[in-house]
Amino acid sequence: MATENFLPRSKPPFSLKRSRIMASTVIGSVLAFLVTLSPTVAAPQSLPTADALIVECGQAVTDMEAGGQFSSRAIYCLGLVRGVLETAFEWYRNDVMQGVSPSHSPICQPDDSLTVGRAIRFTHRYLTEHPERLHERDTVLVMDALREAFACP
After folding, report:
1. Which residues, at least 6 apart from 100, have a Cβ–Cβ distance to it below 8 Å?
2. Tens digit of each residue's pLDDT (9 = 90 or more) over 32-70
3. 71: left (phi > 0), else alpha (psi -120 to 50), else beta?
């Protein structure tokens, strides 16, 4: 008969209960640390105003004149103006398709010469001419700039 070597069981350095307590403490400490790094959850942010938009659209105009790509500072203006422009065009197309007078649309469909670049220039000019309105929501001022440039008859 073969003899088996039985090694005496050594006691683990930590008991199971003790290791769970230690793991809980470490996880709790890490979570507490991460909470201190996260931004404070407070009241919702207010909607963006045109205070920054005038600078961003000014940079977009400069970038277009230089003939290069848009800088990171101009990207917000580009996206906002394009979004408002596309929304206004869809509103116009919808009114025309439903037989509603285009005068109800925020802007009238101009010819194909209207590009996002031209719309950015109109927006920047409008913001420059109306500094008293820069505290207002940026989307409203972009729509007003386009409405002034392409008013329906």
Report:
1. none
2. 444 444 444 444 456 778 889 999 999 999 999 998 788
3. beta
